[in-house]
Design a protein that fits this description.
single chain; alpha+beta; HIT family, subunit A; 3 helices; globular; binds 2'-deoxyguanosine-5'-monophosphate
Length: 114
């Protein structure tokens, strides 16, 4: 099994509550939701963060962003509003070193985030 948690979710070695998947991307519910809707969107391929993904595979980065919109529509938060967040590095709170977009919605979201 991969040592990377999200690689292992991508391969299915670790189960997740998957809301969308295709050959390159998996979207699944966050284990510790911070909003009524909290979905993580990841590529199956390993890239550490958004900047590294965009440099290595811009088409995949675009597909990942497109999937955040798909998830928002699917989860019924596209009209009410939602937030797409990706943390990079320890200071920003990145705890899993495999790029993931958080899709958050279903409640009022404060700005700026903490
Ligand atoms: P970040 O802190 O930005 O790296 O976000 C990592 C997120 O991953 C955090 O919100 C919790 C979530 N998470 C951690 N482990 C698991 C897991 O095993 N399954 C699921 N579904 N989510 C996880």
């Amino acid at each position: 099994m991969s040592e990377c948690l999200f690689c292992a979710i991508g391969t299915g070695d670790i189960p997740a509550d998957i809301v969308f998947s295709d050959d390159a991307i998996v979207a699944f519910r966050d284990i510790s939701p911070q909003a009524p809707v909290h979905v993580l969107v990841i590529p199956r391929a390993h890239h550490a963060n958004a900047a590294e993904l965009a440099a290595a595979d811009p088409a995949l980065a675009a597909a990942l962003l497109e999937t955040t919109g798909r998830v928002a529509r699917q989860e019924g938060i596209a009209e009410t509003g939602y937030r797409v967040v990706t943390n990079t590095g320890e200071g920003a709170g990145q705890s899993v070193q495999h790029i993931h977009f958080h899709v958050l919605g279903g409640r009022a979201l404060a700005w700026p985030p903490g």
